[in-house]
Each structure stands twice: as structure tokens, then as C-alpha cells.
Amino acid sequence: MAQVPQTFLDALAVRTWCGLALRAVGRAREEIDAINVYPVADGDTGTNLYLTLESAATAVEAVFAGYETDPAGPRLADAVRAMAHGALIGARGNSGTILAQLLRGMAQVLAADGAEPRCDGAGLRLALRRAADSARGAVAHPVEGTVLTVASAAADAAERAAGDCAAVARAAYEGARAALAATPGRLAVLARAGVVDAGGRGLVAVLGALVEACTGEAVRETSGAPEVTGVPVPGTEGCDEGRGGPAFEVIYLLEADDAAVARLRDRLDALGDSLVVVGGDGLWNVHVHVDDAGAAVEAGVEAGRPYRIRITHFGAGDVHTGGPGPAPERAQRAVVAVVPGSGLAGLYTEAGATAVLARPGEPPASGELVAALRRAHAREVVLLPNDAELRDTAAAAAEQVRAEGVRVALIPTRSAVQGIAALAVHEPGRRFDEDVVQMTSAAGATRYAEVVVAEHRSWTTAGICQAGDVLGLIDGDVAVIDADVTATAETVLDRMLQAGGELVTLVVGDEAPETVAGHLETRVRESYLAVDTVVYRGGGQGSLLLIGVE
After folding, report:
1. How many Cα neighbours within 13 Å face the side chain of 389?
2. What is the strand order of the sheet 532-539 is part of?
3. Helix, strand or coil for residue 92?
4. Is 514 helix (H, G, I), strand (E, B) or coil?
5. Which residue has the higher pLDDT, 19 or 6?
6. Residue 409 · residue 382 · CB < 8 Å
7. Handedness of CA 531, 536, 537, 542 (dihedral sign)
8. 396-413 burial string, b = 16+ CB within 10 Å, else e?
9. How many other CB atoms are there within 10 angstroms of residue 338's CB atom?
10. Helix intervals (H) in 183-257
11. Which of 82, 195, 203, 487 can bridge 63 by disulfide, Cβ–Cβ 3.0-4.6 Å?
């Protein structure tokens, strides 16, 4: 039975909207992925929108959980701020980043100082206008025929509508649908592929969920493949067609002030394209496509504190072209690895792996691993979790992707140095089972250690440590407690080499002393004959030092 149309939007309606939008995009995810041809034909727009909405919905649910004992429940401002913040920190890809800014624009109106506790039709019109304008402003070089066009059309239609929230939401939805159907006439790459814009298709699904939240009536589904034969194609208005594109997608959250972000925009704009910077109040989500992923991350370091860094290497078919041609063939085999620092992310990516960067204390969720496994776009995938605590999460992600027809092997690596060893013997030309056996054997033959600083007083297998003590862990257990980083690292390394070894791998974190790697290299060279040493820079990996001995 349909509910009475709502004359207002409150916190409960926002919660309902988030849940309905997540389900709507979930139903359309595969279709949206399939029509994803711009700006990169990498087939993940639907997945990225879903993960972004999942983060937004989770944040809203957390707000309601905090009000369980309060019969009044959260305010509208509480719900929309949580929705926008959740989308911002969970945004994935170009499309998810723009969606996060759309939701932030709405929140700026609905949660402004002096805003009403419930939003009426006039307030929703203003919110949709702010959403469209702020999203357009976040994109360095807006292109018509994309989700930005659809969002502007939705706001235009809402401004012409009279009545309550239900009427405004329905007008916005219908305006977005009409604009979506016309996107092939605005962007040549869509016309040649015979599809509408994937990001715009996702936004229509989100607006359809808003209509259902306000009216209780589900809208009719929108197809992503309209008839476009004979559609005239005017100028592409900013589309960089007919050329190869950057090799990497770089995304990170950034803590920085407005002035630093303005400088960052200019620098990233010179490095690549598809630049979208969204957020505010000291927290930003940065998205860009570049050839030099390291330079994009370094620019973020100069601007403030980047974290949750994700670097994706586009496949051979995932370039910024004027048309996708046939759907890109799946690679035969790929490797997906979770890595703890930006330096290692670059190392793994250069070796051909899809890297999922984990911030210390914030391991990736199974949904993020599923997205990475799909993004690898291969018939066979080797998954390296590189963390003992990620074993169950990785297993769940692998099982989900196996159900989609992809052969996934999970190698239970417990440290990034074990993953490096596995990747070193990876041979795509071997039979899959044989390759997995060799990679598993190499990882298992690598002992691992790390040097960290104790955060608080606690009991360990080596005795009681105090906050600030330097700890040396071997194979996950505390083996050394000391006050000096270099001394701890040397003791740990000596103990590991007592059992023999041919190669020492050192991964140095940003907070480690500059001299520690050189000291350990000298120690190995002078005390252990026929043992080689290789050193990598790990970036902000959480540990001062990772050590592998194989």
C-alpha cells in the first residue's frame, strides 16, 4: 500500500533514501558497469557508486544507533551530515567522488545554521541546486553529456516544480531521466558505443530512490542502452577524445586547508586529467588520472596529510579514447595485493599487481577487496592479503568473486614482505595451479618481522613494555623490547639470520631513522656471507621497518 506523499524530508526519510538508493544501485550495478565507457572504459562505475553509497548509508545508520535511547531520534542535520561525510570518506572512482560532492552540496543547505528541522519542497529545490553547482565546481574541466549534465537537469526541473518534497523529487527524477537519455547527443564516445552515461545512470537510480522515499511508490527502472542511431553529435565540449590516457588512477583522502588545496588542484591538473577534488572543512577526497602516480601522491604530501591512498593501474583497454570499440578482453591472470604504504603500492603496481592500500588501523572491507578483484579484469586472480587479520575478509571477497565465474586463489600472506616474495616468482605463463603453488611456497619460505613503537604499556611474549618502547616482532610475536630503533632492528635481523637465509628485504617507513637501512645493509655485508639485501621505501606504512628473510 502506497504511503501518503511527504510534504517534508526529515532524518528518517534520509535514512530510508540511503537504504533504497543502495539497493537500487545494487540492482543496476552490473548494467552500469557494462555501459561505463567515459572517461575510462574500465567497467567499474556501478561498483564505485555502490561502495560510495554503502559508506554513506553506514554512516547514517551509525547516527541512528547513537540515538537508540532518545525517542526524538537524530535531527535532519545530523542525518545529512553523516550521509555526506560517509560518502566523502568512502568515495570510489570518478563517479563516486562526484556523487559524494552532490550529497555534500545537499547537506550544505539542509544542515546549514538556521535550517529547519524538516525540509519542505522549497528547501529540497535549493538543496538540489546546490548539489549540482558544487559538483560541477569540483571538476577541473567539466564535460557535458556526463553525470554533471544529468545533475544540472535534475536541479533545473526541481526549480520549475511547485509543491512538496514528493513533487519536487519526482520532477528532479523526470528531469534527470530526460537528460540521461540525451547524453549520447552531448558526448560522441557515448553515441558510438550506443549507451548513456554510466555515472548519470547511477544518479537517476539515486533520485528514483528519493522519489520512493518521499512517496512510497517505486519508480520505473531506467535502461542504460537507449536507441541512439542517427543522433546528431555536436561538439564534445571538453572531451579529450582520440588519444591514449594516463596509466594510473590515484585517489586519496587529504587533510589540508583551502589554500593548500587550491595549489594542489593546479599541480594535479598539470600532471593528468579527470581531476575531481571534493570536500571542505579540512577534509578532501582527491581523484586524478596520471602517468606518474608517485608525483600525484607527493603533491598531496606537500599540501597536507594524504591517507587511504588507492592507486590503480588501468588495463590496456582502459584508456581515454573516443570510443571503446569491442569490450576489452579479460586478462588471463592478475594479482591483487593489500599493501600498508604508498611506497609499496607503487612497487606492487609497477610489478603489475592491483594494489589496495590499507591505512594503519583501517583495514579494507570485503567490498573494497571485491571491487579490486573485479577491477583486475582477469579470468584468474591471485589475492595477497599481506595481513593475518585480513584472512577472513579476503576469503569472503574471494568467495563472492568466484561466484561470478572468476577463478580466485587466496595465498595467506601475513606481511607485505611475504607478498613481495610471492610476486617475485609469479609467472603468468605457467598453469594457474602451478603458479599459485610456487607463489605460496615463496611466501611460506619468507620469515617476516617488523619494528614498531609501543602505543601503551602492555604484556608481551618478551616481557612488559612501556608506551614509547621500540618493539621487534618476528612472525607476529614480540621478540625484542628496546629503546633504540637501530639496535632493535639489528637484534631482530641477527635472530632471523641465525636460521640461515639468502636474501634480506628491508621496507623502511617514513618515521624510521634515515641511517637504519644503511646500518643493516652494512651488518649483513660484514657478518653474513652470500646474503643479499634489497631496500624499499614503504611510505606511511605504520611500521618503522619491515624485514623479510628468505
Report:
1. 8
2. 477-482, 470-474, 447-453, 545-549, 503-509, 532-539
3. coil
4. coil
5. 19
6. yes
7. negative
8. ebbebbeeeebbbbbbbb
9. 27
10. 188-193, 198-215
11. 82
231-236 contact pairs (CB < 8 A, 24+): 231/184, 231/185, 231/191, 232/185, 233/184, 233/185, 233/187, 233/188, 233/191, 234/185, 234/186, 236/143, 236/145, 236/186, 236/187, 236/188, 236/189
Question: Distance (Å, rounded) from C-alpha 146 to C-alpha 98?
Answer: 11
494-to-449, 485, 518 alpha-carbon distances in Å: 12, 14, 15
Reduced to 3 states, what is the DSSP secondary structure of residue 516? helix
User: What SS3 state is found at 531?
Assistant: coil
- Coil/strand/helix, residue 194: coil
Reply yes or no on whether the pLDDT at 314 is more than 80: no
Beta strands 354-357 and 305-313: pairing type? unpaired
Asked whether the beta carbons of 285 and 100 are under 8 A apart, the reply is: yes
Residue 228 has pLDDT above 90, yes or no: no
Cα–Cα distances in Å, from 81 out to 86, 109, 130, 278? 8, 10, 15, 15
Residues pairing with 253 in the sheet? 285, 307
Residues listed for the chain: 550
Q: Quick one: which of 20, 51, 31 has its CA closest to 373?
A: 51
Q: Taking the C-alpha atoms of 464, 467, 468 and 471 in order, what is their torsion angle to the nearest 10 degrees?
A: 40
Give SS3 for 6. Answer: coil
% of the chain beyond a pLDDT of 90? 45
Q: Which grid cell is 320?
A: 581515454
| Rounded mean pLDDT, 350-362 | 79
Strand 503-509 relative to strand 532-539: parallel, antiparallel, unpaired? parallel
What is the tens place of the pLDDT at every residue in 208-223?
999 999 988 888 765 5
Measured between alpha carbons, how far is 257 from 536 in angstroms, rounded to an integer? 31
Strand 470-474 with 463-465, pairing: unpaired
Instruction: Identify which of 420, 344, 339, 439 has the alpha carbon closest to the alpha carbon of residue 382.
Output: 439
Query: Are 89 and 255 a contacting pair, CB within 8 Å?
Result: no
Give me the pLDDT at residue 40, please. Answer: 72
Of 483, 548, 494, residue with least CA distance to 523: 494
Instruction: Report angle CA 189, 129, 224 to the nearest 5 degrees.
Output: 30
The per-residue pLDDT of the chain, averaged, comes to 85
Quick one: 178 exposed, middle or buried, by C-beta within 10 A (0-12, 13-18, 19+)? middle
Q: Which residue has the cell 603468468?
A: 428
Q: Encode pLDDT of 104-124 as tens digits.
A: 999 999 988 766 778 889 999
Q: What are phi and psi of 470, to 5 degrees?
A: -95, 125
